[in-house]
Design brief:
Largest sheet: 7 strands, mixed
Shape: globular
Strand content: 35-45%
Distance between the termini: 40 Å
Number of strands: 11
């Protein structure tokens, strides 16, 4: 079982930056693929960024490529999402997710492919 806790959300003006953190429990953290998703009111949860296990190869949704950076610190059981050049359309609840599969270097972009979820953190970007 993995418990995920997000933090770092808030209100920011367009063009600003935020860094989200996701703290994970469990000694196997470094073996799991991790990802960030987001969900705005009235919409489906959508993939934002993912990172493979261990040293982590990153991949992104086209809508955030070049603006967001996902990274992981396995020693601290934490995954981050650095968000820059934020836009009002980035407003959503952001969720951290983990896939219960060891040592996978594949990219997983669908929410159904993840087994563990955090409670979410609100990001609001004002125009």
């Amino acid at each position: 079982q993995v418990k995920l806790v997000e933090s770092g959300g808030g209100l920011v003006q367009a063009g600003g930056s935020l860094r989200l953190s996701c703290a994970a429990s469990g000694r196997a953290f470094s073996r799991y693929p991790m990802a960030w998703f987001r969900q705005a009111p009235g919409t489906e949860r959508e993939f934002v960024a993912g990172i493979t296990w261990s040293v982590g190869s990153a991949y992104y949704a086209d809508s955030v490529k070049g603006r967001f950076t996902i990274s992981r610190n396995n020693a601290e059981n934490t995954v981050y999402l650095q968000m820059t050049s934020l836009k009002p359309e980035d407003t959503a609840v952001y969720y951290c997710a983990a896939r219960d599969q060891y040592y996978s270097s594949s990219a997983y972009r669908k929410s159904i492919e993840y087994d563990y979820w955090g409670q979410g953190t609100q990001v609001t970007v004002s125009s």
